[in-house]
Amino acid sequence: MEPRFTLTDNEIGAKFAKRFGTASLAIIQSPLPKVTQELVSLRVSQINGCGWCVDIHTKELAAAGESAVRINLVAAWREATVYTETERAALALAEEGTRVADAAPGVSDDTWESVRKHFDDDRTAALVALVAQMNSANRLAVILHQRGGSYEPGMFG
Fold first, then answer.
1. Structurally, how many domains does the chain consist of?
2. Which domain holds residue 96?
3. What is the pTM of this model?
4. 13 assigned to some structural domain
5. CA distance 11 to 14
6. What's the pLDDT score for residue 1?
């Protein structure tokens, strides 16, 4: 399956992509730990079936020195012992925030309380923005049939 469309080859698409990328800088430059950002991005991408984004975030985690065990167990994080309570709170928010259409209450009060216990206002804002932005990025990549496999760590600077 080849990509359907290259968004950046179109004037409107290029404008959108530039602004989308600029918005991500607020998250990237936030005090939310980079490993947490990548774990959350990977989990959201797994749920959404985005091969392109799964490729990016598994490789970025590996390049950051994360073990294969931690990377491979993200899909089953609730049954794994390799994540901190803080990471578990972030992963719970990632799942519940991604599966809002599947869960009537959306993000549960328990998950929200756990997030607020582990993350200050700046980190919470970055985490919420990251979940929302990754869901958007996944949808773009899935709609356009962007395939995983060719990403090289650091490719996007």
1. 1
2. 33-144
3. 0.94
4. no
5. 5
6. 64
Instruction: Take residue 156 and report the two structure tokens written for it.
Output: 């996007």
Query: Cβ(44)–Cβ(138) under 8 Å?
Result: yes
Q: Give the CATH number for residue 84.
A: 1.20.1290.10
Cα separation, 101 vs 66, whole angstroms: 31
Q: What is the pLDDT of residues 121-131, one digit of tens each?
A: 999 999 999 99
C-alpha 75/C-alpha 73 separation (Å) is 5
Could you tell me which residues come within 8 angstroms of residue 117 by beta carbon, excluding any fewer than 6 positions away? 89
In a domain, 21, yes or no: no
With CA atoms as reference, report the closest residue to 83 among 59, 100, 66.
66
In a domain, 18, yes or no: no
- Does residue 100 lie in a domain region? yes
Q: What is the DSSP letter of 78?
A: G
Q: Give the residue carrying structure tokens 């985690």.
A: 61
